[in-house]
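tokens incoming
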């Protein structure tokens, strides 16, 4: 019996170490771009008028997600630009099939920066070329008139007031090109994360009217006409009227599952956090303490691995509440 006790103690001590090591040693090398990105964001003609206004150009469509990745309380604008005459095709609940030449853009900004009002920080591009996604990051200049291509990342001090009214002082991290692969890698390819059909299947306001976003994009010709009755929806984890389990699983899906699923950067760990994975096969129960520890403290082993320099307090509380209620 005493040996059994020692085995249990050893397992308790070693398992978290193995888990942490596997999360940080599961990469399969760099994935290089197959195109050369232009030096200026303006070259892609995503906006019309002053770029600071972020007004989409003709032929560029705004899209929104039901649940979004936490990135140091930054706000985000998401755009998609398809080649003229081309359409996306829905592929069940997952990522649509995008036509060659698709551009997906995400701009990160803060609306209330000390002494400046709104400040644009970075824009990330994904471009599909020869059936391969290519990724680049552009840093907005001091005059907010354009953004410059950067490869090595940057740290930008920001003092801002968040949407919750709290004042924060952070060092915002723009990822280096090679860092992008940590989250956007699926097996040995780069893929988009957010615009899955189930995450686009929400009601949005367009032209002063509320409409389902998938239907709106079909009417605009962005998505090929198809039946959407079979498309599920990813819950909005901010909506506290929804069941706790749905909110928590949605949070883990968009913030963690891009790595913690088969083929992801941390696909060889004991966690699979995709929203569609049955609880008994997620590994959540086995890793309860690790989930809390790694989201509730900064440092080398903090999760999410990239994109955050401060704790998502609301997200941590959601995880704690959900895990405390697991039987």
């Amino acid at each position: 019996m005493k040996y059994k006790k020692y085995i249990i103690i050893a397992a308790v001590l070693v398992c978290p170490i193995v888990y942490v090591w596997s999360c940080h040693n599961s990469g399969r090398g760099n994935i290089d771009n197959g195109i050369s990105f232009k030096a200026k964001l303006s070259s892609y003609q995503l906006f019309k008028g002053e770029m600071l206004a972020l007004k989409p150009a003709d032929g560029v469509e705004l899209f929104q997600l039901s649940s979004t990745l936490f990135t140091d309380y930054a706000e985000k604008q998401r755009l998609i630009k398809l080649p003229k005459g081309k359409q996306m095709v829905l592929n069940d609940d997952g990522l649509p099939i995008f036509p060659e030449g698709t551009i997906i853009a995400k701009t990160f900004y803060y609306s209330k920066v000390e002494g400046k009002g709104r400040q644009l920080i970075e824009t990330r591009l994904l471009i599909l070329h020869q059936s391969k996604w290519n990724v680049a990051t552009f840093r907005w200049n001091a005059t907010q008139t354009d953004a410059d291509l950067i490869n090595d990342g940057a740290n930008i001090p920001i003092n801002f007031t968040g949407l919750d009214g709290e004042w924060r002082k952070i060092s915002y991290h723009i990822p280096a090109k090679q860092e992008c692969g940590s989250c956007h890698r699926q097996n040995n390819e780069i893929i988009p994360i957010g615009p899955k059909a189930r995450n686009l299947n929400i009601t949005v306001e367009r032209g002063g009217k509320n409409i389902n976003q998938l239907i709106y994009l079909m009417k605009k010709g962005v998505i090929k006409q198809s039946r959407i009755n079979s498309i599920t929806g990813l819950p909005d984890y901010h909506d506290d009227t929804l069941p706790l389990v749905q909110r928590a699983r949605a949070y883990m899906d968009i913030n963690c599952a891009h790595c913690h699923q088969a083929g992801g950067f941390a696909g060889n760990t004991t966690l699979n956090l995709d929203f569609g994975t049955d609880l008994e096969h997620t590994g959540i129960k086995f890793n309860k303490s690790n989930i809390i520890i790694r989201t509730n403290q900064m440092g080398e082993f903090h999760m999410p691995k990239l994109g955050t320099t401060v704790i998502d307090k609301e997200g941590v509380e959601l995880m704690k509440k959900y895990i405390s209620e697991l039987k």
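note: The chain has two domains: 18-28+236-324, 41-219.
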